[in-house]
């Protein structure tokens, strides 16, 4: 196996592919991280305060979240990529392990994002759609943008993250699924989609009531997950796995309220898109002919940098930048403009031979770039146009021109300090055999770590053969703790029989106001659905920890306290003047197909089983000692 992996690494490393897919993966990863930071800021007091708004234990959390938001923005923009990814990786680990995020508010994808972030540390995420790529070009401003080849990367940068982050995850998940009766019955997607706590606002009943469709989906997912790691690299099967995977995770995103997990998985499929598709997409979206030709002063450093910046953001190649000294004479429309005047401004010529100069040129450039046309329109607005013209003239008339001669300093090219360049390019180019051997050992180590999790918790634990006192079991747990913390390797036993068995009741909270009217807290509605924005990790807190088949009153009291304090403050309630009613609804989670099960659970009646009342900063409960027996 070692020799096979080593030879495969050399084979994949020798093949080059467009960097577009990895650039988009970086952008999607950064955007998903950014939305989760915004979510954490909104639910800051619910997640991090021992008693929301009353006992604030971490007052600096919003500051660090905003700092993390800046880092995530850097990732999206591709600015100082290696630094940003390193900081992001460390921050994910810190927040997950040193705050209540994982213990009480596990979003279901924190460890996945840590694993993806780890691989992004070693991926060339700055090669496409990045500010770093622009910074590299700006370090040699007198080099025309056409001299830079389209960035390519090793196909290893695509294959390894997919194999480990998706392939290992799917196979581990499939092992767990085989122990779940509803998955063996072909109802793996159906059962969680009939539970009010888990569904989104989209009613999927028409699909859920088609038993044949549900069986096809359930068994297709099992086959897909078991075989993905073995066949996704096969050229003829790659598109099938791409389409099935996209459909699977798009369905999760739309139908369940764990959308961050669905989006995180979807982002990986940019790495599975066939390389030929990226080239075809590039040809389809780029202009066949430039719609605007811009002439600039070739001897002006500012003009050269401006051209590099504008060209960098000209994603559809709509603008052609030419040296005024070399090319202007070939355009009869510019014959009326003498050379000195031509070099004082940025001139442009469209397809109708209409001439633009100065601010008008910039406005036309933005309009022709398509996606930046609002900026061009704004630049032409009265008042803004005059202000921009004044600023433009103050800069254009004071710029320095440097004649190109032997006295010109040699530009210092910005060095590539990324881990990908240092290991996958520099070391691999010098010692390819040593590179493949070293990487093979690393991959085998990762495989052992994954097998430790899959065999221990996917087989031994589920066969009831696990002995916690066994030294081997203790060592396995210790290894898993390390691999889980730093690599995101964890058992993927999501929504299985041990989760839904006995899940026959759900809880909601209403309150009685001063007028005696009963109102629903904006948390769980009359159907039993968790309302937006209480999705993701807040859903996990209530549906997976507070309310379970065997409810623990201590935990339930804790989360009722947190929810009532948080939402009471959010909607402006005086906590001392309202009584919170705890309501229970009977539902069903069968492992066999039942027609219209979702609506049956929706319409099941509620009964009030107790109350909660705030007095000062304390909450008291009047609840049954054993809710499970109700």
UniProtKB/TrEMBL annotation:
UniProt-listed InterPro entries: DCC1-like, HTTM-like, Sporulation_signal_mat
Record membrane topology: Multi-pass membrane protein
Residues of the HTTM-like domain: 14-277
Taxonomic lineage: Bacteria, Pseudomonadati, Pseudomonadota, Gammaproteobacteria, Methylococcales
Molecular function per GO: protein-disulfide reductase activity
Parts of the chain that traverse the membrane: 21-43, 58-76, 83-99, 111-130, 151-171, 212-232, 239-259
GO cellular component: endomembrane system
Any coiled-coil regions, as ranges: none
Transmembrane in keyword set: yes
Classification via Pfam families: DCC1-like
Subcellular location field: Endomembrane system
Keyword annotations of the record: Membrane, Transmembrane, Transmembrane helix
Primary location recorded for the protein, binned into one broad class: membrane
Listed name of the protein: Thiol-disulfide oxidoreductase DCC
